[in-house]
Amino acid sequence: MTTDSSSTTPAAATRPSPTVVHLRAGGTSVVVATDGGRLPRIVHWGLDLGDLDDAVLADLVRSGLPDIGDSPVTYPQPVPVVPQLAEGWIGRPGLQGSSDGTRWASLFAEARYTVVLPSEHADGSATLRAEAVDAAYGLTLAIDIEVLASGLVRQRATLANAEADGAEYRLDGLELAFPVPSAATEVLDLTGRWALERVPQRRPFHVGEWVRSSRGGKPGLEHTLLLAAGEAGFGFRSGLVWAVHLAWSGNQVLAAERMPTGDRRLAAGELLLPAEVVLAAGDDYTTPWVYGSWGDGLDELAGRFHDHLRSRPSHPSSPRPTIMNTWEAVYFDHDFDTLSRLAVEAAALGIERFVIDDGWFTGRRDDTSSLGDWSVDGAVWPDGLEPLADRVRELGMDFGLWFEPEMINVDSELARAHPEWIFDAGHGIGLPSRHQHVLDLGHPEAWAHVHDQMTELVGRLGIAYIKWDHNRYLIDAGHTPTGRPGVREQTLAAYRLMAALKAEHPGLEIESCASGGGRIDLGVLEHTDRVWPSDCNDPHERLEVQRWTGLLVPPELQGTHLGAEESHTTHRVHPLDYRAEKSLWGHFGLEINLLEEPEEAKAHIGRWIAFHLEHRALLHSGRVVHADLSTPALRLEGVVAADRSEALYAFSVTERPSTWPPGRVTLPGLDPDRSYRVTLVEPGLPISHDGQPSWLSSGVTLPGRVLTALGVEAPSLDPDRSVLFRAIAL
Ligand code: DGJ
User: Fold this and answer.
1) Same domain for 385 and 271
2) pLDDT for the residue numbered 70
3) pLDDT value at position 1?
4) How high is the pLDDT of residue 2?
5) Please, which pLDDT band fits residue 527 given cuts at 50, 70 and 90?
6) I need a labelling partner for 352 at 20 to 30 A (CA). Which of 41, 44, 481, 652 fits?
7) By CB neighbour count within 10 A (0-12 exposed, 13-18 middle, 19+ buried), where does 285 fall?
8) Where in the sequence is the domain holding 481, given as residue range(s)?
9) For residue 362, how far is its CA from the centre of ligand 1 (angstroms)?
10) 647 and 516 share a domain?
């Protein structure tokens, strides 16, 4: 049976137990074999195949059956999204668990299917639910596969222990897999570290498993947002590529697996610590959503994530306010006079939100103490924070405050009162990291303590925005007094805390920060309105961090700040224009001490903020594009309006390229059939026109087809310099 998001015919009633299901939405087809009572098997994921009747679908499945005879493993093809050992699968298991060494080789059968067509879903998605049982083991498994209006596909599974005799089932892992075709010969994932997040790495898709795990209680700074596999040399604009992402902020695993038989799969699931999930009879466990996206090039793949995030009812709908954040401006050096003067300067430049970072709460004069004591420090703020919050609002800005709700310092009133609320796996509270430990929110009283302090402050101070930090990994997070792993419960507790604060304070916005980009995922984005991609404000690094974070996160959800001339994290020195240009492309902010900036520099910052405000609607709604340039030192990226009536691009030089002059750069994403006027726009680095192609001084008018295929000659720039091009459809 087929589902078609563009179909105008009334939806058929849901039909149980078809043999092949074709789910279609948002330009994506997913064909699922559903016969034989077996778990669902995806036989195609990607390009929309159009309307196919049942006979064609049956042949489509048959045409993909491998020609294998008896072999060491005679596996019934195709492979389910949760593959099983007992069916002959000797690859990465879908489900792992047991009851004291029994019930460890599940065999789910009697699957019943329910399909709901796009025309029956208000959101235009096409969905399938499979419900199967392992009668011998007393387990049931439900699997949901959804093709969303964005063309994203997501899957999740619910395992229930239906054992009547009361035996517990210890779950060790439940992963869901997406197949990719044999054309996917290259694997791309991301790595990194503090202040250098999201460094891409590529490798051939070899036989075996390429596994990226996060065991630190959050995805982590080194985490790969996506695990992708694609055609050799796939780029941003071309080359078929598929990727998975797990919508979860705790421990997780993403795996690319190629079997000697030829199967290639991308799988993901929560990484469960020992006995972290033990299902008593009647209990169940639901995996986080595993998202899959695909595209002809990474821009299309990322665009599906962006469209999906933008379609959520919770997606920020108000213009993203420009931010002044105090961290790199004054660090812990807080007092009313300094911060109110900073607020005056910020407001004068067009800043709309003033955020006090770390350092405002009782005893917090540096990073060695006081996490957990969420009350305003009377020694620094004798009249409380109200006078500053009021001053900020008088200046026309809203007021934001930094918290690190899941953390605790040993040197804090909270730790002295409740040392038992610090995670402890049996050897004490473990290593400090940045002098801090993790507060076990699995204690309802600990959760309530943090919640009550935060909600009181948010209400009393009229806080519009929380910068929510998370700096220590949960390396040995044993719930006290049992010592059992508490990461999963902590992740859920953090979500509950965010949700409660938002429910209690409608309109409250939250930023997910974890030493920079350590907690960026679609799970936390259910509760937050912005992510902080990196503590590095150096534009040289930011270009890459933002580009790769953008595989998942659209510009309006990425914080991008203009920092000091000498970067605080790399000590590189950059001109204001380059720093400002790189902060243009997201949710703009300043993280610079305006009290020490010369008047001329402040005026120029003001011009950049005005430019951001002028183009904000485009930047925060358009399609993000990147040119595939053959010289690695050259970068071109931009945002094209949804209706392709205009676009803004940045051309950057990051190193001294070996070929010179740089040659043409293509301007992707334009309508091939429209003409565009392309000009160099200010404020940008004033460039010398000596020896430059003449179009730079006068602009050029060319069809979109020419601009995307041939492009325009790029200016010769020094390293770490950029210019902006604007294209307007005539
Ligand atoms: C780590 C964050 O990533 C920074 O932006 C800043 O908020 C500091 N923590 C404050 O301690």
Assistant:
1) no
2) 64
3) 57
4) 47
5) very high
6) 652
7) buried
8) 327-560
9) 17
10) no
Identity of the amino acid at 572: R
For residue 438, is it within any domain? yes
Going from the Cα of 357 to the center of ligand 1, the distance in angstroms, rounded, reads 7
Q: Which amino acid is at 378?
A: G
Question: Rounded to the nearest 5°, which phi and psi values hold at 472?
Answer: -105, 140
For residue 53, the number of C-alpha atoms closer than 13 Å in the C-beta half-sphere is 1
Nearest protein Cα to ligand 1, atom 11: 358
CB distance 469 to ligand 1 below 6 Å: yes
Domain boundary among 311, 342, 358: 311
Give the Cα separation of 561 and 544 in Å (integer).
Answer: 14
Q: Domain count of the chain? A: 3
Q: Is the predicted pLDDT of residue 3 greater than 60, yes or no?
A: no
* pLDDT, tens only, 208-236: 999 999 999 999 999 999 999 999 999 99
- Maximum C-alpha span of the chain: 85
Nearest protein Cα to ligand 1, atom 8: 358
My answer on whether 78 and 181 are in the same domain is yes
Residue 268 lies in a domain: yes
Q: What is the pLDDT of residues 533-575, one digit of tens each?
A: 999 999 999 999 999 999 999 999 999 999 999 999 999 999 9
Q: Is 630 exposed, middle or buried (0-12, 13-18, 19+ CB in 10 A)?
A: exposed
Contact 472, 433 (CB under 8 A): yes
Determine the average pLDDT of the residues in 648-668: 92
Query: Residue 391 falls within a domain, yes or no?
Result: yes
471 C-alpha vs ligand 1 centroid, how far in Å?
8
Q: Is residue 630 part of a domain?
A: yes
Beta-sheet pairing, 353-356 with 398-403: parallel
Average pLDDT of 97-126? 93
302 and 332: one domain?
Answer: no
3-state secondary structure of 341: helix
Q: What is the pLDDT of residues 704-713, one digit of tens each?
A: 999 999 999 9
Q: How many CA atoms lie within 13 A of 110 on its CB side?
A: 7
Atom of ligand 1 at shortest range from CA of 514: 3
The reported pLDDT for the residue numbered 5 is 37
Mean pLDDT computed over 373-387:
97
| Burial annotation 91-105 (CB, 10 A radius, 16+ → b, else e) | bbbbbbbbbeeebbe
Determine which residue's CA is closest to atom 10 belonging to ligand 1.
358
Q: 3-class DSSP state for residue 183?
A: coil
Same domain as 347, residue 275: no
Residues classed as catalytic: 469, 535
Beta strands in 311-367 (DSSP E): 323-325, 353-356
Amino acid found at 461:
L
CATH of the domain at 678: 2.60.40.1180
Residues 540 and 304 sit within 8 Å (Cβ to Cβ): no
Please, are residues 151 and 118 in contact by the beta-carbon 8 Å criterion?
A: no
Q: Are residues 250 and 341 in the same domain?
A: no
As a whole number, the mean pLDDT across the chain is: 94
Name the band, by pLDDT with cuts 50, 70 and 90, for residue 16: very low
Domain boundary among 526, 560, 594: 560
The partner residues of 179 in beta bridges, in order of sequence, read 265
Cα 572 to chain centroid distance, Å, stands at: 28
Looking at the fold, whether 463 and 492 belong to one and the same domain comes out as yes
Q: What percent of the chain has pLDDT over 70?
A: 95
Whether 358 is in the pocket of ligand 1, judged by its Cβ within 6 Å, is yes
pLDDT tens readout for residues 135-151: 999 999 999 999 999 99
The residue type found at 542 is R
CATH of residue 335's domain is 3.20.20.70
Which residue minimizes the CA distance to atom 2 of ligand 1? 515
For the domain that residue 12 is a member of, what is the CATH number?
2.70.98.60
- The three-state secondary structure class of 597 is coil
Query: How far apart are the C-alpha atoms of 233 and 250, rounded to whole Å?
Result: 32
Confidence band, pLDDT 50/70/90 cuts, at residue 672: very high
Question: Does pLDDT of 484 surpass 80?
Answer: yes
Shared domain for 495 and 408, answered yes or no, is yes
> How does 638-676 read in b/e, with b if 16+ C-beta sit within 10 Å?
bbbbeebbbbbbbbbbbeebeeeebebbbbbbbbeeebb
